[in-house]
Write a structure and sequence with these properties.
By secondary structure, this protein is of the alpha+beta class. It has one domain: Outer membrane efflux proteins (OEP). It has eight helices and four strands. The protein has a four-stranded antiparallel β-sheet, with no helix packed on it. The longest helix has 67 residues, at 156-222.
Length: 487
């Protein structure tokens, strides 16, 4: 009966400990409140027909840059993903976070080891309580198997694993964020490079026209029709256009070098031939739902870090409770001769180990307060990122709308300036006006054409920034994968 009674007590204690094993001291996690968020962006029109994006940053974004219709850009983006050093750093950090998660998860399993220790020792002649017949020098041989398992009664290990898992997911989102940011940066630079190519063509066409005017003015002066002042103006105009061409070449070279560094190639050997074909400006949907921001990897990473900080509170609280481990050991030991594995050489131990910190000078209270503060900070950071994301989207929606109107106005201004240039040139050839009027008209036409191209470049870059701000694109109800619409 006593034996049965002991078994009943042990069984009841085991059930009790197993019940405690489901305990967690972390607060119930509530996603940080980002404040009142709109259903649609102020800069967008009616969002009817657009679905809310899944709040999963892991959803494949796809090659969003293909909407610009440039095979060279497609190739550069592929090189970026394969060769960019910053992506390599983010990938290594992700691997490290996954390895650390594996390390934390190992605490949930029993640990076992085997030890062997053949030793030779000498004891002091004056060792306290030494027997008179004990040898000065002796051998020992020990072979032992040991195992231990910590009962996670207060959820410390589970919360550490949950915290590690959340940080690993955040590191994965950091990698996606690095990719998206660098992809957008590359697209911005490429658009700027192509804008430089178009501006160079405009300036070179103007140089050809200015050269003809310079030649005509020289002939007119030689014939006594024009003055030296007209020729000086023509020479000054031509030299100024040459300076503009040089400046554009320098600007293009620096942009090309930046692209080379992004794609992991040496700027000394990297070269992109000039291309004046206009990039496709993607049409932005009439309505873009604000919940698309849930797909931004930086926002997802911030939310996961808030979850990890919440789990950290549970880890800190578990330090106030005792740690209980189960341990077992089995082995053999002798004095260095005979059969080590004989039954008489056997030893074993089995039992729990309970440890409770009684006095620590307030260290555990401090750690709990620190964990709570980290959660508050992580929550505030999440809210700040969401607000900043809304600002970025609104900024670029406004830019696209206003730059669209500005582009139309600048195109009209360029057309008018070109017509004025033609009229002024004809009037000069007819001897009606001086060359000053031609120079003024030609300078205005060159400036207007370059300004119109600059506005178009800014439009394209604003569309890239909008795609980046939305987490890599969007999708309609008729589409399964988020992507940029080119309708």
């Amino acid at each position: 009966m006593p034996r049965k009674h002991d078994l009943a007590i042990r069984g009841g204690a085991l059930v009790f400990f197993m019940a405690l094993g489901g305990c967690s001291l972390a607060p119930d996690y509530v996603k940080p409140n980002a404040g009142a968020l709109p259903e649609a962006f102020k800069g967008a029109a009616n969002p009817e027909g657009w679905t809310q994006a899944d709040p999963k940053d892991a959803v494949a974004r796809g090659p969003w840059w293909k909407v610009y219709g440039d095979p060279t850009l497609d190739g550069l983006e592929s090189k970026l993903d394969a060769n960019n050093p910053d992506i390599g750093v983010a990938l290594a950090r992700l691997d490290a976070s996954r390895a650390y998660l594996q390390e934390l998860g190992a605490q949930q399993s029993p640990h076992a080891s085997i030890d062997a220790s053949p030793t030779n020792a000498r004891q002091s002649d004056n060792r306290p309580l030494r027997g008179s017949n004990q040898p000065n020098e002796y051998d020992t041989r020990t072979v032992a198997f040991s195992a231990s398992y910590e009962l996670d009664l207060w959820g410390r290990i589970r919360n550490e694993v949950a915290e590690g898992k959340a940080r690993s997911v955040a590191a994965e989102a950091d990698l996606a964020s690095a990719r998206l940011s660098l992809q957008g940066r590359l697209a911005d630079l490429y658009i700027a490079l192509r804008g430089d190519d178009v501006e160079l063509r405009i300036v070179q066409d103007s140089l050809a026209a200015f050269g003809k005017g310079q030649s005509i003015t020289q002939k007119r002066m030689d014939g006594g029709i024009s003055s030296g002042l007209d020729l000086a103006r023509a020479n000054a105009q031509y030299a100024d256009a040459q300076a503009q061409e040089t400046e554009l070449r320098v600007q293009r070279a620096l942009t090309e070098h930046a692209i080379a560094a992004l794609v992991g190639e040496s700027p000394s050997t990297f070269f992109l031939p000039a291309q004046t074909t206009a990039l496709t400006l993607p049409r932005i949907p009439l309505g873009v739902p604000s919940t698309l921001l849930e797909r931004r990897p930086d926002i997802a990473a911030a939310e996961r870090r808030a979850f990890a900080a919440n789990a950290g509170i549970g880890v800190a609280r578990a330090a106030f409770y005792p740690t209980i481990s189960l341990g077992a050991a089995l082995g053999w030991q002798d004095v260095g001769h005979g059969n080590l594995l004989a039954a008489s050489n056997q030893f074993w131990s089995l039992g729990p180990l309970v440890s409770l910190n009684l006095l620590d000078g307030g260290a555990r209270r401090g750690r709990e307060a620190e964990a709570k503060a980290e959660f508050v900070a992580a929550s505030a950071q999440y809210r700040g990122l969401v607000l900043h994301a809304f600002q970025q989207v609104e900024d670029n929606l406004s830019l696209l709308q206003e730059l669209g109107r500005e582009g139309q106005q600048e195109t009209a201004a360029a057309d008018a300036a070109k017509q004025s240039e033609t009229l002024a040139t004809n009037r000069y050839n007819e001897g009606v006006v001086s060359y000053l009027e031609v120079v003024t008209a030609q300078t205005a036409a060159l400036k207007a054409e370059r300004t119109a191209e600059l506005v178009r470049t800014r439009q394209l870059q604003a569309s890239v920034d909008l795609i980046r701000a939305l987490g890599g694109g969007w999708h309609t109800a008729a589409q399964d994968q988020p992507q940029v619409s080119s309708r």
